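Appendix B. Chain record.
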Amino acid sequence: METIVKLPYRHSEEAKAKMRKAAAGRKGRPVSAETRAKISAANKGKVRSEETRRKMSEARKGVIISPETRRKMSEMMKARPRPEGFTMKGRKHSAESRQKMSLVQIGRQATPETIAKRKLAFERSKADGSYEKIRKKISESHKRLFLEKRAADPNYRRHTPEALEKLRLHNLGRKHTPETKAKMKANIQARKDNGSFAKTIEKRRRLREERKALALSLLSDS
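Structure tokens predicted for this chain:
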């Protein structure tokens, strides 16, 4: 009995040329909502193999998106309909979402090119002052949140008596070596010389005053 082996179908060069010509004629033409719905329905539920994903990734590597395209993508995302009043401010990811994000990141390593880009962006943000602005904004936000929670609960983020006892027993009888003492002394002296030690003392004093003022304002409101 003769066995027929089916070879994978390949388009001829002539057919490929016709397809390219047809695709060029469609460039820039808007796709109707009906066509978009059909494409969406056809692709829903499809699971691409690891080999296909790898090929797609390889095909996109090195592709540089122009500023104009980035602007269009940004405008398209901003124009997407969202529920009224939608914002991530004050919202928190669920434990399931955090677990998924954690699993995705496990084992991933940034390439040397990515690390170099991050360093360059970091240096650029420090040079133009945007890094300090963002850092200060985050610091003030965290400080305000901490003061509000501490005013509402005096024991917020304080060691329990049991924890304090464990710490005391852990450090009982431990002594710093002369080398460690010398390092600590040199570190404090260096901080005094560059002014950071005085700044830390002043920051702690100001934090205590803000904490007292916030506690008094919350008590007066209640």
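Further analysis of this model is presented in Appendix C.
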